[in-house]
Amino acid sequence: MIKRIRRRALNFSIGFRLAMGFTLIITLLLGAMGTAIYLRDREIFIDEFNSRGWAIVNAVNRYAYQVISTGDKKLLNGLVNSLVKEKYVMQAALLDLEGKVLVSAGTKDPIPPNLKLSRQISSSIVRDEKGRIKKAFFLSPVLSEEGALGGYLYLLCDFSPIVGHLKKTVDYIIINYVIACLTGLILVRYVIHNYVEKPVKALMVATEKVSIGDFSGKLEVLTNDELGKLALAFNKMMDQLELLFGNIRSITKDMIHNSDLISQRSSYVEKYDGNGLDAERKSEFMKDISTAARRIARMGNQLSSLVQQFKTNS
Fold first, then answer.
1. How many of the other CB atoms lie within 10 Å of CB of 281?
2. I need a labelling partner for 142 at 20 to 30 A (CA). Which of 43, 58, 82, 259 fits?
3. Of 238, 247, 243, nearest to 299 (Cα)?
4. Comparing C-alpha atoms, which of 117, 75, 123, 72 is closest to residue 96?
5. Do residues 152 and 94 lie in contact, with contact meaning Cβ atoms separated by under 8 Å?
6. Region(s) of the chain under CATH 1.10.287
7. pLDDT, tens digit only, all 314 positions of the chain
């Protein structure tokens, strides 16, 4: 199965594979960055939520002791009603020393019956059936300046605004993540197509022309990078091959000419020898044959020298 996938991957162009590789890297980096941003914002909002809850508790603690000491219902109700107007506060209640509710305002959620009443401040979170944070309550002893315990202040705070904001943050990250990935894919594909695929395809076309003996094709050198240097080296190779094959063509043409000359002179001598061909004429023809033969031998040496420029395994 893995070998089959690898074979299919090898069938794709180098530009496509590079584009997919870079896109995968961009996707992973953006995903990691988005996750880090979400977790950071989540911790910030949770800390803000806790800090705000305790700030409210500490702000009203001394006043709450005075109100509880008076036993005035109007002041007690005024205090808890002012607390539920605060952001996040769903319910506020003042408890006596035994944990019984003196006054309450806000939602009618029942106050947990098993609250641990102590002189230490405490808090706890309430989760829904899916395990997500839904609410949190804060329980603080109401103390006088001298440290006398007068009762307890209970606050139930709503975590849903933060959950909603975090959900919007996730949606925002996902939308931007998708846009960034698509944009990155398009840009990477464009860059690779223009600066990798096109030069490579041009080199392939020129190489195919060389394979059929066409040395006229030259590559356009547009950059000074590795591909540009490769194109420059290919052009130099083409110039050398064109010069080499031009020399071979010229030598071959001379060899054919001299071979024809030898053939003509030999045929003439053979035809007319003893039939009116004088010695001077025969000597001239034999000289032409000898000269042409030496030229052919010299051109053969030149061809051998040219061939030796090619490095082969044999």
1. 13
2. 43
3. 247
4. 117
5. yes
6. 226-307
7. 445 545 554 566 677 777 778 778 888 888 888 888 888 888 888 888 888 888 888 888 878 888 888 888 888 889 888 888 887 888 999 888 888 888 899 888 888 877 888 888 888 888 877 777 788 888 889 888 888 888 899 888 888 888 888 888 888 888 888 888 888 888 888 888 887 788 888 888 888 887 777 777 777 777 777 778 888 888 888 888 777 777 878 878 887 877 877 777 777 666 666 565 666 776 777 777 778 778 777 777 777 776 666 665 55
Q: Does domain 226-307 have CATH number 1.50.10?
A: no
Q: Do residues 28 and 36 make contact, with C-beta atoms less than 8 angstroms apart?
A: no
**HSE-CB of 293 using CA atoms within 13 angstroms:** 11
Three-class DSSP category at 289: helix
Cα 58 to Cα 236: distance, rounded to the nearest angstrom: 83
State the span(s) of the chain assigned CATH 3.30.450.20: 2-175
Which residue carries 């706890």 as its tokens? 124
CATH fold of 2-175, please? Beta-Lactamase (3.30.450)
Looking at this protein, which amino acid is placed at residue 1? M
Token pair in block for residue 146: 């001298």
| Size of the chain, expressed as the number of residues it contains | 314
